[in-house]
Each structure stands twice: as structure tokens, then as C-alpha cells.
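Q: What structure does this chain adopt?
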Amino acid sequence: MNSIPTMTKNLLIVNFLAFVATWVLELRGIDLTSMLGLHFFMAKDFHLYQFVTYMFLHGGFTHIFFNMFALWMFGAVVERVWGPKKFLFYYISCGIGAGFVQEIAQYVNYMMMGLDTFDRVNIAGTIMLTADYLNLWTTIGASGAVYAILLAFGMIFPNERLFIIPFPFPIKAKWLVVGYIAIELFSALSGPGDGVAHTAHLGGMLFGFIMIRYWRKHPESSNRFGRNRGQEFFDNMKRRFDERKQNGRRWVDEPDEEPRYREEPPKPKRKNQEEIDAILDKIRKSGYDSLTKEEKKKLFDQSREN
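A:
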């Protein structure tokens, strides 16, 4: 757990605690899902705060396991690139956006079913009030936000190759994202019935795409999140190594003299610069803890040497 970035780790813990609390309170007759799940906005139990709380609840072990596995796998990388504040803002915003899109989809379904014209409905042979039926339209799960994280990973590292079961060959991240979009779109158009909020998944990815595109066109808008100091440290380290690569030349600036280059005898160990660059790139993508002992030693020896 110590190697997981702060915000990703906290989200994993909060989701797990909420899952345990849901199970424990259910044994005592308290339905946390009914209280904090996202109800249809025309239902009597709908509250605005549910746009946030619903994404921390899950319907079963399989549901939370796959969501948290994806959050750990892709969220840790995205947070290392963006920093914790930007990552959390993106996660929560896309989760809210997913809920908003789900509400629109439910309203379309409400109008298509003509529920606005009936006081009662027949559901599997059971007659119930329309108001009570609408109150059953409840959405829970972090899937919308998690799908947005998957999209972010694909847009940041589009050509990163991933091994996905059951495919015996690596798949580029961008094609994995496209495949998920196609599956969710097909499932959403096939109509309700499987109990999965496919429109919420698509909604999270839609909000994520809009947000990332905006940030890329307006880089200054990301300044309010603060700078990713870890990322900046490794970028500066890589730049320092790059500046010292050119045939052993070092820039010197002596008082009362024009700046000039001073020749230094090239050191044999600087021939492994490509390996150092690869190690720094690995730190940028996966963090310092992902290095092997040999890579850490090589990086330490090179920095001491310079």
C-alpha cells in the first residue's frame, strides 16, 4: 500500500470501508444504498448529495473488486502524472458527470414508457404505485469515474501496450479504450435489463474526454491544482543528464568573462546514458518503487558520478 499514490490509496480505502459499512448496516435493517445511492431525480428519495455519495457504494464483491482493481491499476499511474489534486478533481467530476448522464437516460426511459400518464404500474405481475417504482431506479458504483480514469490513461499513454485476458498478445491502450466504448455503447443501445448502468460508464468517459481536451487547449487552467513536484523532480533530473551528454562538454560562466565551453575528458561510464534515460522514464510512468535493485544502484552511481 505504501507504493500507491496518496489519493488513489485513499479512494481505495474509502470505497472498501463504505462496502463493509453497507454490509454491516444491512444486517441491522439499515439500507445504506437507499439513503446514499443516486435515485431518479423525480423519485421521492432523490437528494443532490447522492451525485457524490453513490460512487462510493457497490452492489457486491465482484462489483467492487473489478472497480477497485482498475482504479489501482490505472489510477496510480494517472495520479503520478497529474498529481493528487488534479487527479481527485477529475475523478469526482467525472463521477458526478456519469450520474448526470444516467439521470438523463432514465428520464428518456421514463417518457418512452409513458410513466407520466399512469398512477400504477404492473411489474412482473405485481401492481405498485408509479412513485414507488421510480424510487427503485437507483444507481451505485464507481464505474463511471473508473471508466474516466481508463480513458485518461489511454489519452496520456495511447501507445502503451497492455496484456489483457484472454488475449494472448499486447493491446495498445488507445485500442483498449475504443473497445470499451464500443462495448458500452452497444450494451446501452440494446436496452435495459442487465442491471448495469452502461450510460453512466459512457457519461464518465464523455466528461473525462471533454475535461482532458480543455486542459490540453488551456494548460494554464491546470495551474490551480498545483505542480506535480515528484514529476517535476524527475523531469529536472532527466534534463540535467541530457545537458551533460554532449561529448563531455559542460557550460561554465566565470566572472568578467564571456560564457564559454570547457572541454572535459569523456568518462567511459557515460556511455550508458540510454539506460539512464530509460530508468528515468520508468520512474515517470510507474514511480521510484517500481525500479529493480540494479536500476536503483545504476541511477545512484550515475548521479554520484555527475
